[in-house]
Every structure is written in C-alpha cells, then in structure tokens.
Write a structure and sequence with these properties.
This protein is mainly beta. It is built from one helix and six strands, in the order H-E-E-E-E-E-E.
Length: 93
C-alpha cells in the first residue's frame, strides 16, 4: 500500500549524512531501473547552475553523489530526462 512519509531533516537523518544536495529547482528526476532510488540531475538556484548527479535511496533515506564518466553535460536547468535501460539521457535545458 502506498503511503506518505515525512523525511527527517538532514541532521537527524543519519550519523553519516555528509552528502546532501543543495536546494534547487528546475532539476530532472528519474527512478532507477533495478532499485528503489530516485536519480536527480542539474537544476539551479539564484546563484548557481548544477550539472551534478545524485541519487536518493528510498530504503535507507541516504543521498549519494555520483561521478560521471566521459564528458559531463554543462550545468543546466529546465531540461527533460529520459531513462533507457541503465542510462539517463538529458535533452535541452
């Protein structure tokens, strides 16, 4: 059964919660194929545009910062994501 759950603030989430994304908007998000993770890319604030890739594990409620391979896309926001197999593709922004 689906249910809403409140996520605890960063400081109360875990003893080792060193990875925590900056607040942002205009990012994209997909679900990962084989796990209960949400993957986000990019986004913006008033001061900065992002091109980072982070995932949030629903089970452990932990964030992970991922290193990309190859040339990274430039920082962007208001783009569209697409998931194909184990890859995330970004269009526009």
């Amino acid at each position: 059964t689906a249910a809403w759950r409140m996520l605890l603030p960063h400081t109360a989430q875990a003893a080792d919660a060193s990875v925590w994304p900056d607040g942002r908007h205009g990012h994209s998000a997909i679900t990962h194929n084989s796990s209960s993770e949400v993957v986000i890319f990019g986004g913006t604030t008033d001061d900065r545009d992002f091109n980072d890739v982070l995932s949030f594990s629903v089970g452990t409620r932990q964030w992970t910062l991922h290193e990309s391979t190859g040339a990274s896309p430039s920082p962007r926001f208001d783009h569209a994501p697409c998931r194909a197999a184990e890859s995330m593709y970004i269009f526009g922004g």
